[in-house]
Each structure stands twice: as structure tokens, then as C-alpha cells.
């Protein structure tokens, strides 16, 4: 015998899915976006937010999200490499995290379906960070080896 969803569940979902389908799909919380940004960079925070946009049916906002994340990444990398005495990496992490947290709260706090979904554990964000670290280190090693040939 199928269980009927609680009142108001169907109105909060992006599509007219049943309550079981909505409960099985999970989102990353806003603090998880901050943790991903702190550990990985704005790119990891954008990856986590990208998943939430897809689940909530708002994939059209991905371009704005990735533009913000890549812009933050390039700006902080440029400042820390051109003026390492003035702009240390530790000082530039705080504005990155704050910008991504404010953007995540802006995007997800009042969205339909946000409360209807479950949340992933923050340990999953750690796995995303490790994969991103592996990609970044591989890229740096490949570029170093490539530049040493010239």
C-alpha cells in the first residue's frame, strides 16, 4: 500500500515527484559549501553548489556560479603570487569562504524544495577535496615537467 506524501511536500519539490523520490535525493548544506571552499578552493565549493542546482532544477545558474568561482580562484592566486609578502594565502582564504557562503545562502535559503531534501554528510566534502587536490597536484606536476623541457 503506497504511503501518501505529507501535505505541502509536492509544492516544495522542483518537479512533481513522490515523497520517497524527494527523500532519497540529497543536497549539500550551506556549511558544507563553506567547508569545501575552505579545504579545496572556490572550485570545490562550486562543485558542491553545482550538485544542489541540478537537484533543485536550477541548472541554468551554473554559468554564474562557475564564473564567480573561477574569478575568485584566479584573483586570489594572482594576488598571492604577485605580492606574497602583502597577501598571504592564509589571509585570502577568509574572503573566498565568506563570498561562497554568502552566495550559497543567497541561492538556497528561500528556494523551493530546499527543506524537502535530505543532506549529505560533511565527510563527503572531504572526499571531494581529496579528488580536487589530486587533480591540482597532477596538473602542477605535469606543467612543471613540461616547462622543464624548454
What does this structure look like?
The chain crosses the membrane at residues 32-53, 65-83, 89-108, 128-149. This protein is mainly alpha-helical. The chain is built from 7 helices and 2 strands, in the order ααβααααβα. It has helices spanning 9-12, 19-24, 30-39, 42-55, 62-82, 89-108, 122-148, and strands spanning 26-27, 118-119. The model is unreliable at 1-20 (pLDDT under 50).
Summarize the structure.
This protein has 150 residues and is an all-alpha fold. Helices cover 68% and strands 3% of the residues. The chain is built from seven helices and two strands, in the order H-H-E-H-H-H-H-E-H.
Strand element count: 2
Largest sheet: 2 strands, parallel
The separation of the N and C termini measures: 70 Å
Main structural class: mainly alpha
Q: Calculate Rg over CA atoms.
A: 19 Å
Annotation field: number of helices: 7
Mean pLDDT: 79
Number of domains: 1
Name the poorly predicted regions.
Answer: 1-20
Strand content: under 5%
Helical percentage: 55-70%
Helices and strands, in N-to-C order? Answer: HHEHHHHEH
What is the overall shape? globular
Keywords: Membrane, Transmembrane, Transmembrane helix
Transmembrane segments: 32-53, 65-83, 89-108, 128-149
Topology:
Blueprint: H1 9-12, H2 19-24, E1 26-27, H3 30-39, H4 42-55, H5 62-82, H6 89-108, E2 118-119, H7 122-148
Parallel strand pairs: 1-2
Transmembrane segments: 32-53, 65-83, 89-108, 128-149
Keywords: Membrane, Transmembrane, Transmembrane helix
Salient structural properties:
disordered N terminus, membrane, 150 residues, transmembrane, transmembrane helix, mainly alpha, 7 helices, 68% helix, two-stranded parallel ribbon
Amino acid at each position: 500500500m503506497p504511503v501518501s506524501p505529507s501535505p505541502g511536500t509536492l509544492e516544495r519539490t522542483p518537479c512533481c515527484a513522490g515523497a520517497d523520490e524527494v527523500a532519497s535525493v540529497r543536497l549539500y548544506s550551506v556549511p558544507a559549501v563553506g567547508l569545501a571552499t575552505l579545504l579545496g578552493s572556490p572550485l570545490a565549493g562550486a562543485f558542491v553548489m553545482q550538485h544542489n542546482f541540478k537537484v533543485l532544477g536550477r541548472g541554468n545558474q551554473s554559468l554564474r556560479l562557475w564564473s564567480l568561482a573561477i574569478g575568485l580562484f584566479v584573483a586570489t592566486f594572482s594576488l598571492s603570487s604577485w605580492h606574497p609578502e602583502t597577501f598571504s594565502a592564509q589571509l585570502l582564504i577568509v574572503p573566498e569562504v565568506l563570498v561562497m557562503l554568502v552566495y550559497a545562502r543567497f541561492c538556497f535559503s528561500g528556494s523551493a524544495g530546499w527543506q524537502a531534501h535530505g543532506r549529505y554528510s560533511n565527510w563527503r566534502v572531504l572526499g571531494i577535496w581529496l579528488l580536487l587536490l589530486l587533480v591540482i597536484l597532477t596538473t602542477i606536476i605535469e606543467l612543471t615537467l613540461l616547462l622543464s623541457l624548454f
